[in-house]
Amino acid sequence: MSAGPALAILCGGGALTLEAARQAKANGREVFLVGLVGSASPEIEAFDHIWVKIGELARFTGALRQRGVEEVAMLGAVTRPEFADVRPDWGAVKHIGEIARLFRSGDDGLLRGVARILEREGLRIVGVGDFAPQLVAPVGRIAGGAPDDDARADIAFGAALLGALSPYDVGQGAVVARKRVLAVEAAEGTDAMLARVAELRASRRLRFKGRAGVFIKAAKRGQDLRLDLPAIGVATLEAAARAELKGVAVAAGQTLIANRAAFAAAAQAAGLFVVGFAPSTSET
Amino acid sequence: MSAGPALAILCGGGALTLEAARQAKANGREVFLVGLVGSASPEIEAFDHIWVKIGELARFTGALRQRGVEEVAMLGAVTRPEFADVRPDWGAVKHIGEIARLFRSGDDGLLRGVARILEREGLRIVGVGDFAPQLVAPVGRIAGGAPDDDARADIAFGAALLGALSPYDVGQGAVVARKRVLAVEAAEGTDAMLARVAELRASRRLRFKGRAGVFIKAAKRGQDLRLDLPAIGVATLEAAARAELKGVAVAAGQTLIANRAAFAAAAQAAGLFVVGFAPSTSET
């Protein structure tokens, strides 16, 4: 029944985590979901699962060992606790110095550090592309029409901007219109950034006639593509339409797209193009 | 009565424009204010002044010629119209090709282009540092206490981040806490960016115990320092306090500080440090 070794998914929030689990199953993998308390959806309980808190490393590795699972994917958004609130179990205690250091680094460093600790525990970290490639954005047209010249110039400009931001563990998203940077995404997340552009336009503080600009999204350069990739979905498209953008451009191979059929229909309905661009450099 | 040639100030919005005019007068300059309709404060009418709309170049240069004014400063925030809404007078018509091009560039390019056109009309562009140096941030402590080690590291990180953003005509401000980039400023402006950080903290989406992070502000690298410099004032400090930051760091020589006495008192009251850092590179 299984076309590969059993797979554990360490689940943060978001529907994509569940979709990846379903897709992995459809691709013949046996899946075991580990929900992070406070982040993962209760829907993980439809699968073989346990719940863990951050710091419960022995509980996590023990459950995997019991099931003979050696491959782990990490997916979904995690609400980052303060280090002082973490209660390490005996499995985590031996890594506590490193965990404390990780808590002082960016999200990227934190994820990489967790992956390193899991690998030291004998686990293999895999990415969505490895077990559910259907969810990863390809190069070229993904949904809607083709970008016009202005939009293509904005995509190139925005992709370069995100590249420049990469070393600072920030900048998975930006909105560019006619080579003006309208917004850069940091801790607020994509939806809040797009809502901000929508407000600036509605209040006429940003004045463009009709549709203008592109939302550009990429993984950070040098990011470990097995780890949590940026994702877009129908909500992203709705937010982009409210911001009166022409379309969305995502880094191919580095962006996850949830629920592709509904996504394509929503792009069409919203009059948005969605394209995948080839990231100019890959230093992974 | 005058300690220098008469000076025209092309006025956008903001109290600093008026303070610069008062300071120039106190420094012995005769001043003539040119208010941009829709942007400048009615308070400019306390000075010798006229009002102009964007595109009324002949009206502007004519009024200066009449008064024998050859030096112009450009100050304050301007609401950027759509090019199609600009009504060029006969003075602007001969530059219309360039003006159209400028409207497709970033704010920086637009300002530089306007300066270039005014210079071609025989005017000399000057900066605030030239006629009111009291308003420009110095290196070192400006108000409040001294930054701690964490804050100093965040200042260095944030200054480097803003440097990387410079080529994209964006990024005069960012909030960094323990080397995490919490927010990057683009079209929304400083106040909205700081309000966003305050909301993220209040909603516990960003969890730090107590004061954390620094607001870092700089001019864009390569920016013409005679043109509109970033400015901070009491409102900035109030916003930084609501965001529970430790302090504010501004690029020395590149940032204007309105109303210094009230500013220092407000920093003290809010428990915020304010320091000027020496920009690492100057390619001006």
Structural account:
2 copies of one chain form a homodimer. Helix content of chain A is 36%, strand content 19%. Chain A has 284 residues and is an alpha/beta fold. Chain A has 2 domains: 7-131, Rossmann fold (3-Layer(aba) Sandwich), CATH 3.40.50; 136-277, 3-Layer(aba) Sandwich (Cytidine Deaminase, domain 2). In chain A, the strands form 3 sheets. Chain A has a 6-stranded mixed β-sheet with strand order 6-13-11-9-7-8, with helices on both faces. A 5-stranded parallel β-sheet of chain A has the order 3-2-1-4-5, sandwiched between helices. In chain A, strands 10-12 form a two-stranded parallel ribbon. The model of chain A has no long low-confidence stretch (mean pLDDT 89). Chains A and B meet through helix 7, strand 8 and helix 8 of A and helix 7, strand 8 and helix 8 of B.
